[in-house]
TrEMBL record:
Name of the protein this chain belongs to: Pyridoxamine 5'-phosphate oxidase family protein
Organism: Lachnospira intestinalis
Pfam short name (any one): Pyridox_ox_2
Matches recorded under InterPro entries: Pyridox_Oxase-rel, Split_barrel_FMN-bd
Amino acid sequence: MRRTQNEMKSIEEICAVLDQCKVCRLAMNHDGYPYLVPMNFGYEREGNKIYLYFHGANAGTKKELIEKDGRVAFEMDVHEEARISSVACNSYMDYESVCGTGNAAIADATQKRTYLEKIMRHYTDIPFEMLEKAIEKTMVIRVEVVTITGKFHRTGKGE
């Protein structure tokens, strides 16, 4: 990272951003070009290791690409309103972002409920139930994060 003063130095800082994000953009390999999809997600942290969880239809491009090549990249961010100045180079936006790479795999039937619960818990603390029929029809993706970095810009810092 070129501007190291804007780098998040700890896994705690990175997880604080993950907690705020509602969408993760997941990129898969597709014939030499990235196939990028914004997705709802959940995550868990085990020590310094992070796992991301996604869900979708149990057929289609995402499933085919992950089965063919599980190497993925991801990005998520939180930002505030842009602050525009009459001098363009004095305009800015405060933000926090996380990017990384990982190895994706389709979860087997015994893991799906647990991973779907992690996705739901990312968005709510209210009690919920899951229908077995829906779980059976759902594909769940687990990404073991290999690299992860965080970056921020806050007014008056890292400019």
